[in-house]
């Protein structure tokens, strides 16, 4: 009976999980939990701080970039977006090809 | 699987395909929603560019009894535009998340369309007459010299080429902090609900400056957030009943007569999970991407990543039927997580008699499950099957081992070709299937 149990195939989901953990050993403790949900709620967020932007423009020395605390699970990045960086969002003036 | 022939099996044939042929798909052309109206005469699509295209079925031609009327473009308009919320530094996409039709009350047609933040009520009306014979104006609109007017006449309406106009009649804005995933019109035809990740609001179709919050699952401390609302729908007959699904695979049924804020559900539908089967992926693949009541109102259907489940509203502890859409993907979850496909939100739909359910898959495949015969079929939306009245050939995916002729192996599937949106005509066997940027219409072979 022991050998039978050893020969039992690993369920495919578990095998896939092992593969993922091997690739990303630091993957979060909470599967599909907070981090992933927070990212979902954050969709569309484009960070812009006018204070930092103006200071960067004035090229002030010793300017401190905003840093994310260790408990923050939000990604802000260390690049201060400028109006020129943001892609131009213009509405489609072209008719849908479904109507063509 | 469903073979050809045999009694009542439907034989699906290609009817039409809309959209561009080229492989280079502009983001704006990605179809994001498909919906028939209540009679099935009109078919609406929404896309990522915020545009709505409505097709109308041709009146049946009595001499051509072997085909049903074709769907041709009826109206197209820009429903939503991209916006930027400066206060919150939030980019608001113009993508149309959902379209829902109102039942027809008069000559005009009405639909609700929504993006992430704003719902709009659109009126689509026909104009086929125009006044002619003004006294003070020429036919082209220029004003006549009043001194040349010697007689008086009564202007009359004369027929003109049909013009279809769409105009926004109501704009329901500023009620959602999070992204709207669902809208659903109540059976009272006066109110509707809109649901975002954490809240559900109730609106009156006539009133835009006020809405009532009926569900709020936002935790006091966002760090405690464990689940979000993924879909919501009103019951087709009971105007005080609605359901909402979650990212944890549960469905809650709420009764608005119980309290103003329906945070406490009346029923909780959840299938118990075998703890020994739990993995990193369990919660993600159990997330419900769509919930739809049957036309009868007795059942509801949910779609999660790998399956479709039918629930009897009288039984909360497990679904009455479960259909596997693409079980062979269970051994590919690692790569599907890495390429984000595991987060794809597939929709599902019922046929008019609630006997067959349909949902999409990858490689432009879509699946149908016959609840009575327990047979299923896999079909493909492809321009290669372009001949009208030729029956579509069933497809089969080979999970492992030796691939038979005409089967396709899991590793050959194109995961960029996803069918997320499908719709079934309310009365006939006509279906609309959306690939990334094309809309396919199939119908059953009539004799």
From TrEMBL, chain A:
Against InterPro entries, the record matches this protein to: Endosulphine
Which gene name does the record give? Ensa
Q: Where is the composition biased (Polar residues)?
A: 89-100
Q: Name one GO cellular component term.
A: cytoplasm
Tell me, in a sentence or two, what this protein's role is: Protein phosphatase inhibitor that specifically inhibits protein phosphatase 2A (PP2A) during mitosis.
Primary place of residence? cytoplasm
Give GO MF terms, alphabetically.
protein phosphatase inhibitor activity
Q: Return the protein name.
A: Alpha-endosulfine
Tell me what organism the protein belongs to. Answer: Lanius ludovicianus (Loggerhead shrike)
Q: Name one GO biological process term.
A: cell division
Give its localization: Cytoplasm
Q: Which family does it belong to?
A: Belongs to the endosulfine family.
Top-level taxon of the source organism: Eukaryota
Give yes or no: UniProt keyword Nucleus. Answer: no
Region Disordered: start-end pairs:
63-100
Query: What are the alphabetically sorted keywords of the record?
Result: Cell cycle, Cell division, Cytoplasm, Mitosis, Phosphoprotein, Protein phosphatase inhibitor
UniProtKB/TrEMBL annotation, chain B:
**UniProt keyword annotations, A-Z:** Repeat, WD repeat
The family note in this entry says: Belongs to the phosphatase 2A regulatory subunit B family.
User: What's a Gene Ontology MF term here?
Assistant: protein phosphatase regulator activity
Stored InterPro entries: PP2A_PR55, PP2A_PR55_CS, WD40/YVTN_repeat-like_dom_sf, WD40_repeat_dom_sf, WD40_rpt
According to its record, what are the GO cellular component terms? protein phosphatase type 2A complex
UniProt xrefs under SUPFAM superfamilies: WD40 repeat-like
* UniProt name for this protein: Serine/threonine-protein phosphatase 2A 55 kDa regulatory subunit B
Give me the gene this protein comes from. Answer: Ppp2r2a
- List, alphabetically, the PANTHER family matched: PROTEIN PHOSPHATASE PP2A REGULATORY SUBUNIT B
- Source organism: Lanius ludovicianus (Loggerhead shrike)
Q: Report the transmembrane regions from the record.
A: none
Domain of life, per UniProt, equals Eukaryota
